[in-house]
Amino acid sequence: MVTPTKAIIQTSLFGMDHILSELNACLDNPPHIFLVGFTGSGKTTLAKEFIAAYFKKHGISKKEESEYCVEISSHQDRGIHTFRQILNDHVRWIAPRKDVYRWIIVDDCDTLPAISQQALRRPMETYSHITRFLFISQNKESLITPLQSRCHIILIEPSNNIFVYDQILEREGFKKSDFTEEAYSELITLSLCSLMKFQSMAKMLYTLRSAEGIGILDSEYIKKSLDPHIWGSMKELLDMIIEGRWTEAQRQLYKIWELGYSFEDILFELEHNMIVMTIVNHRAWYNIQQFLIRSWIYHSQSRSSITDLMSACSDVRPWNATAPT
């Protein structure tokens, strides 16, 4: 028998002290967990770091992890039959080591069909003595209420703590004095309060600055280096998709791709902008969701060229065509 060791979650993320405190408190006797936060907030990273800490605590080796954990992402088939198979193969069997839970990580619950969620209600309760679920979503309401009620819900919110941004810059090799006040504000604005996006941009700026021998960075350099025009281009693309202007959307996709953005980059930026805009119109929500679903299906089939992304526009059925006759 392996004696549990003291373990804490090791993370490379900043500004997560209260979240880490909550997750560390769950290591000894973990509940089902539901992580909620916008794109780029670090949800999936934290989930994997939590699982790694849990396995370390119980002496589970990397080689053994596949016996204890299965991850279900949005790139996989997540229909009800798939979930029933997973329940049969993974949930109902006692883990090889006593007092160690099996884990099922369900990422991107925003696109998880309600019927598949319904299939999890009873197993979550019946097999709670041997299995734990960890759900990840951008929107709390994407998980049906019966599943939410069985979970410890942890909200990961945007950071407005300037001290955290200073820490990130320092770790990436900067001092705050390396930026003009306008440049510093511009960088935070472009990050959309996402710490992961801010960290990624800081890394890029440090590399550029070192290569070009730049001294103090001003707002013009930030704008030129990080191409803020992409945000306007993405907003235009989102408007075209929402309004069903698919031919224009195809042309806009090609323009963005020519700027050096990949298939995945474009979809992630669209998802982020969608959350920021808080879309409430049903027709608009239908159009963007249908486009994203078809695009990610192509991606799961290793079809990730710009022509495939443009084809996804043609695949979206008009809103009226979905109405019952």
From TrEMBL:
The keyword Transcription does not apply. The keyword ATP-binding applies. Residues 29-160 form the AAA+ ATPase domain. This is AAA+ ATPase domain-containing protein. It comes from viral metagenome. One of its GO terms (cellular component) is DNA replication factor C complex. SMART domains: AAA. SUPFAM superfamilies: P-loop containing nucleoside triphosphate hydrolases, post-AAA+ oligomerization domain-like. One of its GO terms (molecular function) is DNA clamp loader activity.
